[in-house]
């Protein structure tokens, strides 16, 4: 058998890595706590995934938001689903942190436009995007091809990116189908965002992913009542 020369080997490796990069959503396999978090969405309108740094909180949030946006749910999925293209929000503390966390996880490296489509939203599903003003490489929104198979209706989903620093007024406005808070929001931002979902496809629908740094804050206390379901 002929040996593969170095250049050919490098080209093949690059092609393999590219294929892996654009199949991130398909290859997502949650660990137990992430899977419980996802499954809880079927019955619970508000969910909190709280854990230490680098333990997959934002990964879980991004993977779920990409599933809802694309309508591509894996066989193991036991959580909430959307049968029509949803309008979703994803936010964090500042424009920079929104870009560097939710946007990066969903779309790909912010500063490398040619790599957009290597996040959890497959490149083939991204049909448009609008840039935000004031922060380099920050997107205002990304438009995603949704569904088209089985009971899932074809359409265009939108994930809009928000920042807490803009204040509660910037979280007012349209009805949305779900809000993902990546990092703990102030209580007024959280309640305003949740209110946007009241008339969404599933009614109230919000997830929070963060490392607890603010102690028993008002937001944390919402999930510490006797009625709260914990795993």
Automatic annotation (TrEMBL):
This protein's record includes keyword Transmembrane: yes
Name of the protein described by the UniProt record: Large terminase protein
Assigned keywords, A-Z: Membrane, Transmembrane, Transmembrane helix
Top-rank taxon, per record: Bacteria
UniProt cross-references to Pfam families, sorted A to Z: Terminase_6N
Membrane spanning residue stretches: 205-223
């Amino acid at each position: 058998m002929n040996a593969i020369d170095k250049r050919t080997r490098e080209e093949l490796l690059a092609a393999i890595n590219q294929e892996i990069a654009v199949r991130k959503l398909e290859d997502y396999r949650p660990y137990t706590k992430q899977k419980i978090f996802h499954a809880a969405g079927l019955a619970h309108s508000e969910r909190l995934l709280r854990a230490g740094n680098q333990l997959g909180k934002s990964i879980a949030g991004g993977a779920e938001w990409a599933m809802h946006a694309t309508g591509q749910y894996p066989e193991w999925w036991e959580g909430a689903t959307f049968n029509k293209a949803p309008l979703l929000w994803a936010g964090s503390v500042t424009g920079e942190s929104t870009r560097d966390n939710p946007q990066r996880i969903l779309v790909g490296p912010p500063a490398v436009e040619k790599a957009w489509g290597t996040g959890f939203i497959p490149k083939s599903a991204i049909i448009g995007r609008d840039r935000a003003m004031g922060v380099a490489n920050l997107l205002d929104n990304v438009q995603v091809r949704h569904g088209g198979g089985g009971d899932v209706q074809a359409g265009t989903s939108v994930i809009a990116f928000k920042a807490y620093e803009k204040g509660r007024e910037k979280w007012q406005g349209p009805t949305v189908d779900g809000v993902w808070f990546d990092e703990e929001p102030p209580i007024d931002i959280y309640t305003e965002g949740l209110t946007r979902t009241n008339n969404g496809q599933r009614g109230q629908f919000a997830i929070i992913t963060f490392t607890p740094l603010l102690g028993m804050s008002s937001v944390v206390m919402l999930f510490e009542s006797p009625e709260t379901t914990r795993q």
